[in-house]
């Protein structure tokens, strides 16, 4: 019997999208066994209100995710990484914020239909960092997410988006080593994070 496709939903602010995000995606595919990773930038974050425009964070996520398909070493054969704008589309119909439980159900409905009816229903899990569990008391429907989808805890890498914003704002060009080249070009072209501390 064919095993169900394992899909990781990797949500976040991606403010900005850095190489550490690529490392997490690689870990989800190479170590955790997911065949598909859906990168989902938060369009209307329930706990953060000082984010750059959604379109910038979506574009950076798209560029960073696409860059992985051309990176070395290459991703395992048959694996896919895609940045999706499901949350942005939901905002066209719903007032903010968009809650994770509702987002996951929308993704399951949208992407579950892309697979053959002969295939088992894909398994969707929500990828989170260790700091996210500390905020569960502020989340809506955590028990429902755990029961219907489940969580996968991702490792922590040394560089964080906060560090990148601080470096860019301080004019420290070392930040370019920690973001995919297409993302670095996008940040410079659009003047993001300039003269801004995190």
Write the layout of secondary structure elements.
Layout: E1 6-12, H1 19-30, E2 36-41, H2 54-68, E3 80-83, H3 86-90, H4 100-112, E4 123-128, H5 130-133, H6 142-148, E5 151-153, H7 161-169, H8 181-190
Parallel strand pairs: 1-2, 1-4, 2-3, 4-5
Helix pairs in contact: 2-8
Beta-strand percentage range = 5-15%
CATH topology: Rossmann fold
Shape: globular
SSE string: EHEHEHHEHHEHH
Widest β-sheet, arrangement of strands: 3-2-1-4-5
CATH class label: Alpha Beta
Counting structural domains, the number is: 1
Largest sheet: 5 strands, parallel
**Name given to the CATH architecture:** 3-Layer(aba) Sandwich
- Intertermini distance: 50 Å
Can you tell me the residue ranges where pLDDT is under 50 for at least 5 consecutive residues?
A: none
Provide the gyration radius in Å.
17 Å
Q: Report the mean per-residue pLDDT as an integer.
A: 88
* Helical amount: 25-40%
